Queue: 2 jobs
Job 1
Amino acid sequence: MALLSIVLPAYNEEQNIANTAKVLADLLTENEIEYELVFISDGSRDATFSEIRKASEGNPCVKGAEFSRNFGKEAGIFAGLELAAGDAVIVMDCDLQHPPQVIPQMWKLWQEGAEVVEGIKLSRGRESLAHKLSAGLFYRIMSRLVRMDMSASSDFKLLDRKVVDVLLELPERNTFFRALSFWAGFRTETVHYEVQERQFGESKWSFWSLMKYAVSNATSFSTLPLQLVTVIGLVFLLFSAVLGIQTFVKFLMGTAVEGFTTVILLILIVGGFLMLSLGIIGHYIARIYEEVKGRPKYIISHVTDNMRESVKKNPRSAKGQTGNS
Ligand code: UDP
Ligand code: MG
């Protein structure tokens, strides 16, 4: 029988673990799907990992690992993919904002031959205005850069073992899971879902963490900003040619002095764009620097007892492995 792994990245979600584990276990048992729940505690500072341990003692299908510090949701997803043993893997938030009721539908599509099942948001759940605005801006920029409509996509998806292995083979460290499954291709189906209310705790994204996420994803997935620098350069070259000719003509006609404002403005504008361009290039150099260093995406400090087996069996997951408890 086929095994379904569900990967759940969790950061400070102590209130959610027990409930989520129970809801998923009940649902999957009811639908007679053989499953494992892989919780990845992303360096949580609360009792998230002990909650995972507790859940795992009550139900051997619940497994978990804890990072040595907060590495971010991307790292959590990838750790989960590496540790998952399933023939199909679903990634979802552990706050149940991704409705579990959709899982049997995803599973059915997979059984019918789909290799990727994308969860598409029908609408965003109720959020604060600031969050909505920053998330809106983020998706607008991302869709442009990635050249795919990202506005309705989410990290809620099912991947076939083949696709998981492809993603795990990617050498890069700065990943953008949401777009990578598009990039990988494969036979893709979609399911639509309504984002649910978060029951416990609060969203882990602040305006700045979202902006950082946007910049990091943009630079890891697209070189468009770099090309933008060239375009801006060209526009200014053209502009300066026109201005140059005008100045020269004025000089010939003997009306050269004046236009001090133009000079000041030009210096400011060109200076501004130069700084911006350098900043953009700097971001890419930082990315290259990080990739070249080749550090692991995450470091696991603890795993649940039943997880130790899969860490041993899967040498790849040992890459990010230290600690022993
Ligand atoms: N998360 C994580 N690491 C982080 C931030 C978030 O693993 O650094 C997890 C979090 O526990 C949750 C999921 O990512 O399971 C989505 O986070 P959240 O619900 O805060 O985001 P939102 O639903 O508001 O977009
Ligand atoms: Mg959430």
Job 2
Amino acid sequence: MVSSLIGFIRFFELDVKQKKEYFGRDMTKKVVYNTNFDLYSSPAANWRDTILFHMAPNPPEPEQLPTCCREIVTEFSKEMLNLGDVLFQLLSEALGLRSNHLKEIGCLEGMDTAYNYYPVCPEPELTLGATQHTDTGFITVLAQDDIGGLQVLHRNRWVDVPPMSQGLVVNLGTLLQVMSNDKFTSVEHRVVLKGAEPRVSAISFFGIGYTLNTRLYGPVEELLSEDNPPKYKKTTIKDLVAHAYKQGLDGTSFLHHLKLMD
Ligand code: OGA
Ligand code: NI
């Protein structure tokens, strides 16, 4: 996995003129490179550059991908979709649903692959690579290099997620929390900056980029009963993402607007 990370770092090391071709803030484009996709809506900026590829349901043509990482992006995304298929089966079963359930309601339809690049920071204690947040979609699968810095909030304490050679991190997203009616909890996480070398991570977001999807998602009907009434209103991914962008610095849950009860 680490070797595939090294492959795409080449993109970030290209000169500005070459990278400029992909630069933009229109997140509906199939390939978008920028620093802080939410620069104008977030209360704080992240020390990070990202190139994002909308890989499912309608992937870019190969020639739309930067030549230096064309093969790697394609291969990585294919493997992630295969893995996503297995993960959604397991998660369906964990919820007590038929193994195809989450797939049948579209969890595997939309996937974005993102490559994050955290440059070396001269004053790392003054900033963060990624401020506290939860991921918006169904699940996120992440491969990080061996620099470290990813942390999860566990019982109000930040805990390191140490890099593991060949290991992947799977985060449950906010939308899956809503669908599970709080049986699953989406994880608060952040990235602190360390090391004298840039850090890179490769991520596949299932669901998040699917902002044109007007489907309503709420607690899965089959999970609800008199004892387990719905805790959330139904929402579209687009609406959820819009609220996520306004997420407070302290990570105050942007799920409040959907809550039917506490
Ligand atoms: C993200 C994220 C963590 C990382 O992009 O949502 O949490 O290790 N990234 O890059
Ligand atoms: Ni995240």
